[in-house]
Amino acid sequence: MKISIVVPTFNEGGNPAIVAETLVNVLRPLEFELIFVDDSTSKESVEALEHLSREHSCVRYEHREHERSLGTAVVRGFELARGELIAVMDSDMQHPPELLMDMVTEAELGCDIVIPSRFVPGGDDGGLSPSRKLISWVARVLGQAALKRVRSVTDPTSGFFLLRRSVVENASLQPIGWKILMEVLVRGNYERIVEIPYRFQPRIAGSSNMSLREQWNYLKHIFKLILSSSEDRRKYIFAAVGISGVLVNMLVYVGLVKLHLDFWQAAVLSGSVAMATNFVLNDRLTWYDSRSGTAIKRLGKYVATSLMGIGIDTVVLSILAYGLHVDYFVANGVGIIVAMVWNFYANNYWTWKTKRKVVEVALSSTSGSVERV
Ligand SMILES: Nc1nc2c(ncn2[C@@H]2O[C@H](COP(=O)(O)OP(=O)(O)OP(=O)(O)O)[C@@H](O)[C@H]2O)c(=O)[nH]1
Ligand SMILES: [Mg+2]
């Protein structure tokens, strides 16, 4: 079996038959199967699938009586699929089936995931109403801001994609809600992604299943993915440790001043204590899975990085406040942010030696090629 097309359906009536007829025509040169995973509550929709599977030997369907989730329906489709390549698409013709042959060609050229994108040159998201476009934009920006692996693709919330079986075979996928591609991008095993421009189409019939509840599910999904992805989680824990360091610094400083130490002595001592607690927390929590060498060596590198950070902060602040006459408060804020970014990356790759996983994202060969990481 060359390719399995997984199609989630919910109360789509006659739409799956139209999708199936078109796919049978388009994929004729290939060995393929169509798998509908159906959570319909309407009897007619289930009967239509039963009829379809009797008519075409390449069509299978599974009706789930007590489950309703687009994400888990697709994961179930992955389990049922027998193809070397697996594609996922909607059952309302919003995703043009004709594109599948190009997607298969891209996979044959060696990429692991092919994503038709509405947001690369030549793509178009015309099928959505302005309000849906806005919701979709906010969702995309949120996902890309929160998750590094999602950031590298232009259409990570798409329900249309193709992947090599190995991408999901050993990945433990636990999607909440709709955005199964984000789940695959964060938890899957892959190295190369290709995006192909396409024009998103209006639904042929029936109505959307998108709801407020799905938007809430989306936020929960992002949060869960952050927790499960070490490269994203690290940044948030590092920021939390940084805030805890400020509190430790303040408390120790006030205590020492109350013990009648000079201000500068109290400042040096409280700064050192905060640096030490930050080191321990980062070593135990932020980079617990990337420790190498002795703790004392890591501490040495951490202190060197932090001192360098203070230097960077001072230089940035001086350039902004004295050279460019920026407000001293703003200049200090910018200095702190630049130093924090420095601290994070220097510690990530030097103190704790986190391995960098490079994912190549390219535009399809017909549309030129750019490499993004
Ligand atoms: N199995 C299953 N499929 C679902 C579920 N919810 C939606 N789907 C299917 O997932 C696909 C996407 O859902 P749509 O309602 O078309 O969502 P949309 O494309 O964002 O909305 P429109 O642009 O209005 O069509 C369609 O094929 C639906 O039939 C579900 O709970 N279970
Ligand atoms: Mg749709």
How large is the count of helical segments?
Answer: 13
Specify the overall morphology: elongated
Query: Can you say what the CATH homologous superfamily of the largest domain is?
Result: Spore Coat Polysaccharide Biosynthesis Protein SpsA, Chain A
Q: CATH class of the largest domain, please?
A: Alpha Beta
* End-to-end distance: 33 Å
> According to CATH, what is the topology of the largest domain?
Spore Coat Polysaccharide Biosynthesis Protein SpsA, Chain A
Bound molecules: guanosine-5'-triphosphate, magnesium ion
Radius of gyration: 26 Å
For the secondary structure, the number of strands is: 8
Q: Main sheet? A: 8 strands, mixed
Q: If strands are numbered along the chain, what order do they take across the biggest sheet?
A: 3-2-1-4-6-5-7-8
Helix fraction, binned, reads 40-55%
Q: Detail the poorly predicted runs.
A: 368-373
Mean pLDDT: 92
Topology order in helix (H) and strand (E) letters? EHEHEHEHEHHEHHEHHHHHE
